[in-house]
Amino acid sequence: MNLQSKDLLNMPHPSADHLDLLEAEALFILREVTAECRHPVLLYSGGKDSAVLLHLAYKAFHPERIGLALLHIDTGHNYDEVIAYRDRMAERYDCQLHVRNVEDSIRKGSVRLRHQLESRNPHQSVTLMEAIAEFGFDACLGGARRDEEKSRAKERIVSVRDEFGQWEPKNQRPELWSLYNTRVAPGNHVRVFPISNWTELDVWQYIQREDIELPKLYFSHLRDIVRRGDILVPVTHLTPANHGDTVETISCRFRTVGDISCTAPVASTAITVADIIAETTQCLLTERGATRLDDRASEAAMEQRKKEGYF
Amino acid sequence: MNISAHPSLDNEMTELAPNQSPSGLLRFITAGSVDDGKSTLIGRLLYDTGNVAADQLASIQATSQKRGLAAIDWSLLTDGLIAEREQGITIDVAYRYFSTARRKFIIGDAPGHEQYTRNMVTAASSADLAILLVDARKGVITQTRRHAYLAHLLGIRELVLAVNKMDLVDWQPSIYQAIVDEFNAFVGQLGRHHVQAIPLSALNGTNVATHAEAITWYDGPSLLEHLETIPSRRDADQAPLRLPVQRVVRVMMGNGANDATDVEFRGYQGTLASGHLQVGDEVEVMPSGHRARVTRLNIAERALQKASADSSVVVSLDREIDISRGDMLSDPVHPPRAIKIITADVCWLSEQPLQAQGKYLIKHTTRTVNALFDDLSYRVDVNTLAHEAVPEKTVMNDILRVRLKLQQPLFVDSYADNRTTGSFIVIDPVSFHTVAAGVII
Could you give the angle at the alpha carbon of B431 between the alpha carbons of B428 and B435, nearest 5°? Predict the structure, then answer.
């Protein structure tokens, strides 16, 4: 029996009151962590989830300024537009922005690449841990969501990491009610995910409701791509077309925006947030399934990376 | 046995007024023993509501085939960790999301066997409803009773008795009815609950997301219909105002947000644990006992006339009172108890045994205080509900009735009256681990 028909697919809700509840939960978490932790920081990449998180932080502190600095771990492989957007948002929300570069870790020798064009995404962990040590952060707030990936679904909202940044899935702190335990031993820190309980669709509905600005890459535009199986690889200086590839110019958008070498766009004609919500509602592929080259390496790619300190 | 007895099941308490529509979010948990079909039920719910993406489906289909299985192994969808897939077991609670045109759902998917109490308590703490799975061939077993008790302990009033694998007993109504009767008799001893029993087949999807017309003797809802229409805890929350203060906001020259026009501002941030708050309302501030009126209510720049439970707000008062994080704004007519000795049921969550002489930290709402276990009254056998002498060594999953002595007062209600002001966690001040969860009597 196959009931997987269009009319049953996750339709937008008639009432948006679930967004109020998700928002209230996130504001609560942001306030708890900033009230209890000594030196928290907000991880900010300029992607849609961190855009939502920054907006939530604005609401959590209002009428005070956001009481958190932003930290971006720059792989050096970002789209220029996203970097410009990042800087603009830091200024708009009046936040101090710390940028630490994977390039510097490569120069120091703490990150070693197998080859020059290798994805730098997994290596962010090293630079992130270096930044945590440098600033003495005891809490890193980030925009990760449990619906992104199966192992993410298992992680607590307040997740303890040791001095290597490792996540221990078998030894997590129980987390009950909304009583978050933010205490950590010296050298350890917590990763905090205020939008854990949000889905991709919730994020887009919230972006629409709150009119949150995003990089244009999230909306349809014309781009040169090469088809590799079912993945559209953008033609860039980091992911050039190989000899014999057919380069096509198509209308596409990004569902996730990260390191150029590992994020792929999807074919789309959506030019407004409403269009994207409609597409997300109808889409049969997960956000990462269609777009992330690195999660496909094995069934447990994300879990492995997180054990190594990845966000 | 010391169990409050309410022999009749009470359906009235959770019914909504006809003009109210249920909230757009429902949190529920599923519980059952290993082979009762929990993963299959969750997989089926997700699949039949169109919440399994094509790439996920392709991936679990391929793995099922590789393992030589005739049908899809839905546990592959929910077991996310390498160790879980290797061992074919669920290690930890996972949260799943799905939505229909009517509602969004968060499933707390707790493992059925290993470390059952602790995981079930964790998942149940945030749930509005519990689905208890029973294999129609086996009927109500010890684990069903245990799960019902834990759901009760955690204050879940909405129970679904999902009688699964009905196809394997030829949909015989007598078998179903016997299970329902036995379950109701047991749950009736625990207190006030609303039980919806549903005969179903998770594997075939019968009565899961669609209604089985062929089962003429059952005229109740399908599982999904029930989940879509049942009120959440929030819909029924008529409790008096409780607003634990999370942060004090002060705006002076220079620290205002971009568009904040106030030169000076003082307000209190927090989430309404229960009740409503309106501009003009008088509140009592715990612990000072001072009263003040609400002059402003905000969510960021949006001014509200009225806020309801679960809203995360900023409150301004009409006079300057010394208020800090951990204090509580409450209904002056029905204030919480301010007490330094609390009686509670705790579930021990840690592998480290309880140190009866040791000092612990209690985190209750936004207040953390030092505490000592003053008395360990008894241990509950979660299988029989009998009260036993407290063993020499308290181990993980034990449920104990205790008395705690606190260094400073907490502002509490009983858990039965208020899940937020009636609950706490116990933190080990040396390891910083969360070692126990408690519900106040």
Answer: 40
**Rounded Cα–Cα distance for residues A20 and B102 (Å):** 16
C-alpha torsion angle, residues B286, B292, B293, B295 (rounded to 10): -90
- pLDDT (0 to 100) of residue A1: 31
Q: Is the peptide bond before B287 cis (omega within 30 degrees of 0)?
A: yes
B249 with A22: Cβ contact below 8 A? no
Give me the interface pTM, i.e. the ipTM: 0.90
Q: Residue B305, Cβ neighbours under 10 Å: how many?
A: 8
For residue B230, give how far its alpha carbon lies from the nearest alpha carbon of chain A (Å).
15
Please compute the mean of the pLDDT values over residues A208-237 and round it to a whole number: 93
Contact A290, B57 (CB under 8 A): no
Tokens of B210: 């669609």
- CA B286/CA B39 separation, integer angstroms: 46
Q: Which two tokens stand for residue A79?
A: 């789209």
d(CA B426, CA B428): 7
The shares of helix, strand and coil residues in chain B, as percent rounded to the nearest 5, are: 20, 35, 45
Average pLDDT, chain B: 87
Q: Are B108 and B121 in contact (CB under 8 A)?
A: no
Indicate the pTM of the whole model. Answer: 0.90
pLDDT of residue A6: 36
> In this structure, which amino acid lies at residue B161?
L
Is residue B12 pLDDT above 50, yes or no?
no
* Whole-number Cα distances in Å, B71 to A280, B75, B165, B192, B236: 29, 12, 16, 40, 41
Q: What pLDDT digit, counting tens, does each position of B86-118 carry?
A: 555 455 677 888 889 889 999 988 876 656 788
Q: Collect all residues of chain A within an 8 Å Cβ-Cβ radius of residue B48.
A: 3-4, 8
By C-alpha distance, the chain B residue nearest A12 is B101
Cβ-nearest to A181 among B104, B257, B363: B363
CB-nearest to A3 from B99, B210, B271 is: B210
pLDDT value at position B440? 98
CB contact under 8 Å between B122 and A174, yes or no, is yes
Query: Rounded to an integer, what distance in angstroms lies between the CA atom of residue A234 and that of residue A267?
Result: 11
Confidence (pLDDT) at A305: 58
pLDDT tens digits, one per residue of B50-88: 888 787 788 888 888 888 887 788 777 776 555 555 555
Query: Of how many residues is chain B composed?
Result: 441
Kind and range of the H or E run holding A191: strand A189-192
**Closest residue, chain A, to B119 (C-alpha):** A174
Could you tell me which of B94, B166, B110 has the C-alpha nearest to residue B143? Answer: B110
- Residue, of B51 and B428, whose pLDDT is higher: B428
Residue contact A184–B310, C-beta within 8 A: no
Query: Could you read off the pLDDT of A162-191 as tens digits, one per residue?
Result: 888 888 877 788 999 999 999 999 889 999
pLDDT at A24: 96
CB neighbour list of residue A208: distance below 8 Å, 6 or more residues apart:
A273, A274, A277
**Under a CB-based contact definition with an 8 Å cutoff, are residues A20 and A13 in contact?**
no
3 state DSSP class of B208: coil
Q: How many helices (H) and strands (E) does chain A have?
A: 9, 10
How many other C-beta atoms are found inside a 10 Å radius of the C-beta of residue B253?
Answer: 7
Q: How far apart are CA B197 and CA B199, in angstroms?
A: 7
When CB atoms are compared, the residue of B98, B312, B427 closest to A24 is B312
d(CA A27, CA A209): 16
Closest CA to B355 of B389, B410, B403, B393: B393
Q: Is A234 helix (H, G, I), strand (E, B) or coil?
A: strand
Distance from CA of B181 to the nearest CA of A (A): 32
Q: Which residues of B touch A290 (CB under 8 A)?
A: 55
Could you give the CA distance from residue B341 to residue B29 in angstroms, rounded to a whole number?
32
